[in-house]
Amino acid sequence: MSALIEFKGFNKFFGEQQVLKDVDLSVQTGEVVVILGPSGCGKSTLLRCLNGLESAHSGSLKLDGRELLDTSTDWRQVRQQVGMVFQSYHLFGHMTVLDNLLLGPLKVQKRQRGEAVAQAEALLARVGLLDKRDAYPRQLSGGQQQRIAIVRSLCMNPRVMLFDEVTAALDPEMVKEVLQVIQGLARDGMTLLIVTHEMAFARAVADRIVFMDAGRILEQRTPESFFTNPQTARAQQFLEKFSYVESLPERPQKELI
Amino acid sequence: MSFDFAFILGTLPAFLKAVGVTLQVGLIAIATSLLVALVNAPILLYRTPVLHRLVSLYVELARNTPLLIQLFFVYFALPSLGVKISGFAAAIITMTFLGGAYLTEVLRAGVEAVPAAQLESGRSIGLSEGQLLRHVILPQAGLLSLPALFANFIFLLKETTVVSAVAVPEILYTTKSYIALYYKTYEMLAVMTLICVLLFLPLSLLLSRLERRLQHGQFGS
Amino acid sequence: MASSGLELLLVSLPQLGKGAAQTLAISGLGILFATLGGVLYGVLATLGKRSVNLALRIYLELFRAIPVLVWLYLLFFGLPIFLGLSLPSFWCAVLVLALWGASEVGEVVRGALQSLPRGQREAGLSIGLSGWQLYGYVLLPQALKRMTPPTINVYTRIIKTSSLAVLIGVVDVIKVGQQIIERTYESVLIYGALFLFFFFICYPLSVASRALERRWTHA
Questions:
Q1: ipTM of the complex
Q2: What is the third-level CATH fold of C2-217?
Q3: Does the pTM exceed 0.90?
Q4: Is the Cβ of A77 closer than 8 Å to some Cβ of chain C?
């Protein structure tokens, strides 16, 4: 079965600095790939190359067999197939929730309003926010906005969904509701590429962990294998930082006079 | 279409003089406007009873009417009330009237732009109101108003072209006179454009740079 | 005396009205084209194309370095020579106000668009919006509130600057006023009336601009 997404020998520079070095990555349809790595390792950039927000310098990037690093690529078409959710959700503040969801389907995909509204409302109901359809983003919490941002992308009927640190800007009590939505998508067989710092979540939802550092992919393993037995030194250092709290020694009880 | 360079060279002394007049009018207007503003701004900020309403009215009247009308009023209308003024004097008076209002606003806005947090921290370390003014408010207000002040100075310099309407021999008036006298329209327009660019473009670029540099410092305070 | 002054004004009203119509027409057309041009400028300036930005910068600095009155004379005296065009002074004035106004409005629009979070652009692109759609449905609507108060200020300046048209021969409200003065010598009255004419147009605009700014900055 050929891969849905395929990076081959992929390179990207920001000016003088090379942020992606010779990246080879294949993602199968229905796979959930979680990309981990220290800040600045290029994981977000990799995602953003997939929907054309960043351009590449050399290499190959294929979506469903079609080469995207081609001057004839119509990124508008690609973006309808590759949905992206951002850390700061970026809902359109001047529109109601429903209008946010309908903008793409109606104006880009030119679908019938009735059908688009039905889909939007069904998806809103699925994430438990149907009653907010006429609200404005500023009236909603971060967690609610992020769930709606996910629905906005889903309304385009994409084949792949990209998640770029989507819980990093949320208050802790709202992280769960968003992660549950993503888990639901994974269960339904949607192809997902997730960049996150939530280790427990990564472990639970991923089919494969991709570990990056300084623009290269260092490890690609199953979650269990990666978390219990990281092979490279960098991966070990990285995981150690996250286990810092668990591995703190117990505080000796102070003698209170 | 031939370009009469010899003629242009012949007019250079006159144009040099004209630039001098432009600078004279402009710089005097800047100075007097600043004085007016320094008197008015405290009145507005401290809300001196009665006076501050008058100053507000003055500012609104001066900023919402054209310089040309103000100029014509002073130069043409005042004589009928017995006050006879030269073009130069009318120009200075009018530009002070206008410039004073603009600069008053700039100074007022500068003081009001000092973040309240600065005043709070100043008071909480025990500064008196006088010390607060001298060490916290005025220095910061000064810095914050610099770009706007400079922008208004350039504005006043450029507005001197309007006083050509009352025969003040600045650059535009000189250009028009030469065109009327010698019909060398093409050459005179070229000279005038060149002088404007040489005079005002550097100032405008300087202002852009000043604005950019102060933006970087602003978030630090 | 005061009553004869008022009488004079009333009698001259038709004439002054015609002049005022010219002034307002010049201002109005200037404002219209400046707005259209300004939005175009602002959109072009935020496309991220270096050559476009350079061209816009040159255009902007040209209108900043050369005072509007000088531009009026350049066009009025220069167009016949350079292009063989003899544009009536009314249209010279409209053209200059439009071009100058567009650069000012353009800078406002550019600033407003650039102050929007970059993510809005990315989010819009990610759902497949085209450039036109991105600006039309997402960016410009959200920039509108930020653009409006400063743009109203530019409008006020256009209206005030339109007074310079009299200097290139347009028979606007000032010219009519001067004609009346020539006959009646009532310079204080007429210039005073002209002063108030402009004031009562520009002052409400200034107030509106400040009110909108206060209202929309806390939104």
A1: 0.90
A2: MetI-like fold (1.10.3720)
A3: no
A4: yes
